[in-house]
Write a structure and sequence with these properties.
Blueprint: H1 8-32, H2 34-39, H3 47-50, H4 55-76, H5 78-97, H6 104-124, H7 129-149, H8 154-159, H9 165-169, H10 171-191, E1 194-196, E2 202-204, H11 207-230, H12 235-240, H13 245-258
Helix pairs in contact: 1-4, 1-5, 4-5, 5-6, 6-7, 7-10, 10-11, 11-13
Length: about 260
Amino acid sequence: AKNSWPGWHVFIWITIAMIGARTASMALNRVIDAKIDAKNPRTKNREIPSGTLNKYDGILLAVIGFALLIVAGWQLNRLTLFLLPIAVFFLSFYPYTKRFTWLCHYWLGLTIGASAAGGWIAVTGSFAPTAIALWIAVALWIAGFDIIYALLDYDFDIANSIHSVPAKFGIKNALIISAISHVLAVIALLASCYYSDSSGTYAISFRFYTLAIAVVVGVLVYVHWLVNKKGAAEALKSFNANMFISPIILISVILDLVF
């Protein structure tokens, strides 16, 4: 966002905000979905359904997570703090979306994608077109992968009236929708390569970042080849390939800053 290291203060508090948001959202998701998880063979051994933890433990963990998020926002800048209620709403409401809309994957994407824009705001104290492009890219990337992940619960979701893209449109169409989401995510990533200099001229920046996008395209092609070629049984392996994308992007940004 500033083409330089933002400093340890900003880095540490952004990291704490990320940990707090992730902890709170995961804990709330487990609490709200406890009954659904207990019925689902894939999730029945999670902490609350299995009795390892109870709902009050989950609520306490969520409160601690949100407290970390709020303190971190307060330590960063006014705009970050001002936008916190919106972030808390998105994080808290996601588990309910699968109860009434197949767009739940995109709500999750928008929620997680906000972290990209949030990081930008934490560093600069303002919005920017690049931050919005990153938000869109992450939102579509996450939504596409979450649709693939939902293939694992295809039969369960239909039987229990859980809303998802696969349950609504079928597996074949779900994979097409996922692929389209990922194509649009790549376009948004490419759009984030453009920046405006002091004269207002837009130009391509970040050499390693653009190279990383090419690698990400390769990962996405592999992911969709795997699940289309070998079927829904490979959805988890396909989903796990998602874990390579964030480190690839992070390393590329660091290299651009260093070189």
